[in-house]
Specification:
438 residues, Outer membrane efflux proteins (OEP), four-stranded antiparallel beta sheet, 10 helices, 17% strand, elongated
């Protein structure tokens, strides 16, 4: 009997602790995920990286400006013979030269290669945004998978607590009945066995709930020991709205959008590769300063010059050994591969949407049936409990009706959250997961 009291104490104490935790709503969980999740942070950094790449500073349309400066110093023994036949010799003749310049280079025309590269970088930025969106959608599904698992286990704990309390009342009633000689010891022993079983089930469910909460804290990048409760209310999306989403799935599915972006990128790569067939025109300009100090053997003792220079250059690769032609052919084949990949994705997405729609409708129907099953099981348990009090059925029959009710309630909880997850998976495939109210 001492152990039975311990199980009862643990059950009641755990219930008190569970009631103290603050509520973490779905909206708050999503906000924490968007702010702190590591995968989403990496995806955002990749978007920023692509944004930097698409900027004008990485486009090749701006000129390059370089500054050069130098100085030389020579010491030589020199002998000079002049036109009149005289000779002059200088020992340790010193020569110093200084120079500085600013040089400007600008490509006026490169066969449109940089223009198409610039357009490609724009499309790659759009692709990075779609990839970040896919990461957010995948992480959100992961979040709700864990969030709904916490909710399911929370409701299971409540159901197990009710079962525990019913068994506790039965044990108390059996104890009094045995003291007054109304039942034999077997009724008490059966109740003691059942309350130990219910206590163990309750403890295991609480441990599973604690583990699931830690999993949720990892997804939201929160402290592992943070205590909270979750919202167990589920609202399903209007079927008419879901039908509207299904009709526009081919224009909103993130995988199909990425496939279209990849085709656009390949097209720009192909156009840029054809720039080898056109000439390049460049502009150069410089401003320089030069100064030299020479020994007596030189005609000039000192020379200083400053000035501007400018020029235009044209280059045309008439034949590069065939590598350019090969690149153009390969770029064209890459477009064909991207288009084939898009066709494959269209079929896969249609299949996935059809499967997800079927799963959602099936799970929703199962949930409705489980709701009715709970009503039936509850009615059966209440009737069995009354008949047990009147001595019309045994404790084993009462226990069976109690187990049937417990199974019906936990199955209903499972069906409810499985149906909601199936709905979210369907919404992700239609490209609407981030556009719905939770």
């Amino acid at each position: 009997m001492r152990y039975i009291k311990l199980w009862i104490f643990l059950g009641c104490f755990g219930n008190l602790l569970a009631q103290e935790a603050p509520l973490l709503t779905k909206q708050e969980a999503v906000a924490e995920m968007l702010e702190g999740n590591f995968g989403i942070a990496v995806a955002r950094n990749n978007v920023t990286l692509s944004d930097n790449n698409q900027g004008i500073l990485n486009s090749g349309f701006l000129p390059s400006l370089t500054g050069n400066a130098g100085a030389t110093y020579n010491v030589e023994d020199q002998t000079a013979t002049f036109q009149d036949g005289t000779t002059r010799e200088v020992i340790d003749a010193e020569t110093t030269r200084y120079n500085a310049s600013l040089n400007l280079n600008y490509t006026l025309f490169d066969g449109l290669g940089r223009w198409y590269d610039y357009k490609r970088l724009k499309e790659e930025y759009n692709l990075s945004e779609l990839q970040a969106r896919e990461t957010i959608e995948t992480t959100m599904l992961q979040l709700f998978t864990v969030y709904f698992e916490v909710a399911r286990l929370t409701e299971n704990v409540t159901v197990l607590q009710q079962t525990f309390q019913n068994t506790k009342k039965r044990l108390t009633r059996a104890g009094y009945a045995f003291e007054y000689g109304q039942v034999n010891k077997l009724e008490v022993l059966n109740a003691e066995v059942d309350i130990v079983t219910d206590s163990i089930n309750l403890m295991n469910a609480r441990q599973q709930l604690a583990n699931a909460k830690r999993d949720l804290n990892v997804v939201t990048n929160s402290a592992l020991d943070r205590r909270f409760s979750v919202d167990t209310t589920i609202v399903f999306t209007n079927p008419l709205v879901v039908e509207t989403f299904l009709q526009s799935a081919d224009t909103n599915n993130v995988r199909l959008l990425q496939a279209r972006q990849n085709i656009a990128i390949s097209n720009y790569n192909y156009k840029a590769s054809k720039s080898i067939f056109l000439p390049s025109v460049g502009l150069t300009g410089s401003y320089g300063w030069n100064e030299g100090n020479f020994p007596a053997t030189n005609f000039l003792a000192n020379n200083t010059s400053t000035g501007y220079s400018a020029g235009v250059s044209l280059s045309w690769s008439l034949f590069d050994g065939g590598s350019g032609i090969t690149s153009v052919k390969n770029a064209k084949l890459q477009i064909a591969n991207r288009e084939l990949e898009q066709q494959r994705l269209v079929l896969e997405v249609k299949r996935d949407i059809a499967n997800a729609q079927g799963n959602y409708e099936n799970r929703l129907a199962i949930y409705r049936l489980q709701e009715q099953n709970v009503v039936t099981a509850l009615n059966n348990f209440e009737r069995s409990n009354e008949r047990y009090k009147l001595g019309q059925i045994t404790s084993l029959e009462l226990r069976q009706s109690q187990i049937n009710l417990l199974n019906a309630q936990t199955n209903k909880n499972l069906a409810k959250y499985e149906a909601k997850l199936a709905e979210l998976e369907l919404l992700q495939l239609t490209g609407q997961l981030l556009n719905i109210e939770l």
